[in-house]
Specification:
Blueprint lengths: L1 H18 L6 E9 L7 E4 L3 E29 L11 E24 L3 E6 L14 E18 L7 E8 L8 H27 L1
Antiparallel strand pairs: 1-7, 2-6, 3-4, 3-6, 3-7, 5-6
Helix pairs in contact: 1-2
């Protein structure tokens, strides 16, 4: 009985380790330099995800951080997806952020979201597009891209070195079907062993 429980627990432990492999962040861009009077390291991104912009220097400097995320909003007749040419209305926008700082290490995070879909019922303002009031519509809000930039002001003539890095954070993947099967098998074996042990206790 002890061997059965040990083997089952081993299967569970193995499946859990397989379901959450170590994921390393991905460095998308990195550049180094030295003795810069004024410079503006920047990088543009276009895929949904979480991104870290880091700047390190060998002495204190002044910087201004700028981030600009381009946004887009559309309305369509449900259900999704629909080609952009079929939108009932749409608009472009942007999300801006600006901050001044001083020091030798700077880190800012930018997040581009996956498209967000919301449903609602049409009123008569869409009749000019041939859509009757009461028709089910959906809106789609998405980030189309973003740019992060450091404006660097050395504040003295002393030379320095810098490293500018852009990293995309990675997330743990969803377990494969085979891993789920191994987990279910392991938990089932543990449950069966416990029931057998209970029956032995009652028989005694």
């Amino acid at each position: 009985m002890k061997r059965v429980v040990t083997a089952a627990l081993g299967a569970v432990a193995l499946s859990l380790s397989l379901s959450a492999p170590a994921m390393a962040d991905v460095v998308l861009f990195q550049t180094t330099g030295s003795d810069q009077d004024f410079f503006y390291p920047y990088f543009s991104i276009y895929e949904a995800g979480t991104y870290d912009f880091e700047l390190s220097v060998t002495r204190d400097i002044d910087v201004a951080w700028h981030s600009n995320i381009s946004t887009h909003y559309d309305v369509f007749v449900a259900p999704p997806p629909k080609p952009h040419a079929e939108n009932l209305e749409g608009s472009n926008g942007s999300s801006l952020f600006y901050e001044n700082n001083s020091g030798s290490y700077f880190k800012y995070t930018m997040v581009l979201i996956e498209p967000q879909i919301s449903y609602f019922v049409a009123d008569n303002r869409y009749e000019y597009r041939g859509v009757a009031a009461g028709t089910l519509l959906y809106s789609e809000f998405r980030h189309e891209g973003g740019t992060g930039r450091f404006d660097v002001y050395p504040n003295s003539a002393d030379p320095f070195e810098f490293t500018f890095t852009v990293t995309k954070r990675e997330t743990a993947p969803v377990p494969e079907p085979a891993t789920w099967a191994l987990m279910i098998l392991g938990f089932g074996a543990v449950g069966g062993a416990m029931r057998a042990r209970r029956r032995e206790a009652w028989a005694a």
